[in-house]
């Protein structure tokens, strides 16, 4: 379970990114976090993956209190979550296989498991024939599918996607959303930060709406409505 | 542990191969640094040999009156040897002095004939004294000025050669200081340039490092390959620079030998080839590893 409890994030010059934000996410849920640019969606993601620390409040993920994690505890915590970004964030000097294998290698998984899991997960995202390509040789949609494969190869409890379709055409956008749905069906919690109205309305899942760093709506089977 | 280590080595090697021009330019800079380092070693060796050969040439001789017995001279020799400033004292008897003189002038007939006509040995017994440090000749000369020794001596060469000795001592001091300043300055330059090159190479990977952290890589797993890569840079630079040093030494060694006969760089290089390579290797690999550790630190802090 993920819990945000009165979380405030202030940047320098009193720029408030999040203001006393509270919500809970149950295991297996598919939650969309929506809002305009600058509403605080990416800040929520950064706080969830421990890339930034809240100014006030507490963030829990199962037994971890993320805001209190020590630097050396962070890698182990991050292996429980998968993250996907708008700009893909692939390791440019590693092949598709190596990018995905890296997530397993950092967790100390044996080589035979890596050789078995990576082709499986690449098959799932439809990129088995690109196993030896470098990211620069892939299209945007393919890069994002590699990023998804990397995020899910460790079978994480939570998958966090920050504007994963922002750089994709409509066809690839729906391919990515289908994959996220599939991952959710397999049991992972999915948190999707997006400002794409069509996606959110089609999904018909829980929607948390942020406005100026505050939660203004939190609805099951919600819709993208911003006043 | 072994699995992690093998993965670190694999990624380090992979990074080295895939970085292409970045690796080539880093190695080029490190080769220059290694040249400076190797050059400094040889410069210091040449300098030390020159200084030593100059020092060897400095000594003072005490000539005793012809009526002073050998026992007295030997007892003075012993007292001189007891001085901390004195390195070695050689006794040259009258007969030895004559024999040496004859040998030196064997081809000069006039001198040999003149010597044969003399009934007595005109040369005086002497003690040749070498100091541990060239600055200490004055103290030794002062000791010889003491009344009980002075009465028995004919002359002490220090007074005659003082100007030359002082100049040579000055030369030795200047050479030592210049060598030290050059060594410190050039080493600093080589280390700084190499460190900054490696820092730039790692800076160009800062985004990649951030991605690795987000995927859950520990600091040591991220740092390891960069350190290994630094070591690879170092080893390759050491090998290339060492191979390139050989023809250079071959070329300059005869020129230096002509100028300072006591310095034979080629022979020194051949005699010490393994230890020189070891130092060069240690310097380059150490520089690569330490630069890698320091350069990556800032990206792993937050």
| Shape field of chain B | elongated
Helix and strand content put the structural class of chain B at alpha+beta
What is the oligomer described by this structure?
A: heterodimer
Query: Count the helices of chain B. How many?
Result: 12
Nearest-angstrom radius of gyration of chain B? 31 Å
Strand content of chain B: 5-15%
Number of helices of chain A: 7
> Helix share of residues of chain B?
over 70%
What letter string, H or E per element, gives the SSE order of chain A?
EEEHEEHEHHHEHEHEE
Low-confidence stretches of chain B: none
The radius of gyration over CA of chain A amounts to 17 Å
Q: Report the end-to-end length of chain A measured between terminal Cα atoms.
A: 30 Å
Sheet bearing the most strands of chain B, described?
Answer: 4 strands, antiparallel
For the residues shown, what is the average pLDDT of chain A? Answer: 92
Topology:
The complex is a heterodimer of chains A (227) and B (302).
Chain A: E1 2-11, E2 15-25, E3 30-34, H1 41-48, E4 56-61, E5 64-65, H2 74-78, E6 81-85, H3 96-106, H4 111-124, H5 140-152, E7 158-162, H6 170-185, E8 189-194, H7 197-203, E9 206-211, E10 214-219
Parallel strand pairs in A: 3-8, 3-9, 6-7, 7-8
Antiparallel strand pairs in A: 1-2, 1-4, 4-5, 9-10
Helix pairs in contact in A: 3-4, 3-5, 4-5, 5-6
Chain B: H1 2-18, H2 21-57, E1 60-64, H3 70-81, E2 86-92, H4 94-104, H5 109-117, E3 126-131, H6 137-144, H7 147-150, E4 153-156, H8 157-203, H9 206-215, H10 219-259, H11 265-271, H12 273-300
Antiparallel strand pairs in B: 1-3, 1-4, 2-3
Helix pairs in contact in B: 1-10, 2-8, 2-10, 2-12, 8-12, 10-12
Keywords:
heterodimer; A: 227 residues; six-stranded mixed β-sheet; four-stranded antiparallel β-sheet; B: alpha+beta; Alpha-Beta Plaits; elongated
What does this entry look like structurally?
The complex is a heterodimer of chains A (227) and B (302). Chain A is built from seven helices and ten strands. By secondary structure, chain A is α/β, with parallel strands linked by helices. Chain A has a domain at 81-155. In chain A, α3 packs across α4 (111-124). The longest helix of chain A is centred in the last third of the chain and has 16 residues, at 170-185. Chain A is globular. With 302 residues, chain B is of the alpha+beta class. In chain B, α2 packs antiparallel against α8, α2 (21-57) packs across α10 and α10 (219-259) runs antiparallel to α12. Chain B folds into two domains: 2-54 and 170-300, no CATH class; 66-151, Alpha-Beta Plaits (2-Layer Sandwich). The A-B interface holds A 49, 51, 72, 74-79, 83, 89-94, 102-103, 105-108, 110-111, 150, 154 and B 3-4, 7, 14-15, 18-19, 207-208, 211-219, 221.
């Amino acid at each position: 379970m993920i819990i945000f409890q009165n979380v405030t994030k202030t940047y320098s010059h009193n720029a408030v990114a999040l203001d006393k934000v509270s919500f809970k996410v149950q295991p297996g849920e598919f939650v969309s976090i929506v809002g305009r640019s600058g509403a605080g969606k990416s800040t929520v993601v950064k706080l969830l993956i421990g890339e930034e620390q809240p100014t006030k409040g507490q963030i829990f993920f199962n037994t971890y209190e993320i805001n209190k994690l020590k630097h050396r505890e962070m890698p182990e915590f991050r292996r429980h979550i998968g993250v996907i970004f708008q700009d893909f964030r692939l390791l440019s000097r590693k092949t598709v296989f190596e990018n995905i294998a890296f997530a397993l290698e950092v967790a100390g998984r044996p080589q035979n498991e890596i050789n078995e899991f990576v082709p499986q997960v690449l098959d799932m995202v439809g990129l088995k024939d690109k196993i030896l390509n470098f990211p620069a040789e892939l299209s945007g949609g393919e890069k994002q599918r590699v990023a998804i494969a990397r995020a899910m190869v460790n079978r994480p409890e939570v998958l966090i996607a920050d504007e994963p379709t922002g750089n994709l055409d409509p066809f690839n956008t729906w391919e990515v959303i289908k994959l996220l749905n599939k991952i959710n069906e397999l049991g992972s919690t999915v948190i999707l930060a997006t400002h794409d109205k069509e996606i959110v309305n089609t999904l018909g899942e829980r929607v948390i709406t942020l406005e100026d760093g505050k939660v203004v709506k939190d609805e099951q089977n919600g819709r993208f409505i911003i006043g | 542990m072994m699995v992690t280590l093998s993965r670190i080595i694999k990624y380090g090697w992979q990074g080295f191969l895939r970085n292409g021009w970045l690796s080539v330019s880093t190695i080029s800079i490190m080769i220059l640094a290694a040249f400076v380092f190797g050059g400094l070693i040889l410069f210091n060796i040449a300098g030390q040999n020159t200084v030593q050969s100059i020092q060897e040439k400095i000594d003072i001789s005490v000539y005793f009156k012809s009526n002073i017995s050998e026992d007295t001279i030997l007892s003075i020799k012993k007292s001189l040897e007891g001085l901390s400033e004195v390195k070695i004292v050689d006794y040259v008897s009258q007969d030895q002095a004559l024999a040496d003189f004859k040998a030196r002038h064997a081809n000069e007939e006039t001198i040999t004939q003149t010597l044969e006509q003399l009934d007595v040995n005109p040369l005086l017994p002497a003690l040749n004294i070498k100091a541990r440090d060239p600055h200490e000749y004055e103290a030794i000369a002062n000791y010889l000025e003491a009344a009980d020794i002075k009465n028995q001596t004919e002359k002490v060469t220090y007074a005659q050669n003082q100007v030359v000795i002082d100049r040579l001592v000055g030369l030795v001091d200047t050479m030592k200081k210049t060598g030290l300043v050059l060594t410190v300055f050039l080493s600093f330059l080589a280390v700084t340039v190499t460190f900054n090159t490696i820092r730039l190479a790692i800076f160009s990977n800062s985004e990649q490092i951030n991605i690795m952290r987000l995927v859950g890589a520990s600091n040591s797993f991220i740092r390891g390959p960069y350190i290994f890569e630094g070591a690879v840079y170092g080893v390759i630079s050491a090998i290339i620079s060492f191979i390139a040093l050989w023809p250079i030494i071959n070329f300059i060694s005869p020129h230096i030998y002509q100028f300072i006969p006591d310095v034979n760089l080629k022979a020194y290089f051949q005699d010490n080839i393994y230890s020189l390579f070891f130092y060069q290797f240690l310097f380059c690999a150490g520089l690569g590893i330490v630069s890698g550790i320091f350069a990556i630190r800032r990206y792993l802090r937050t």
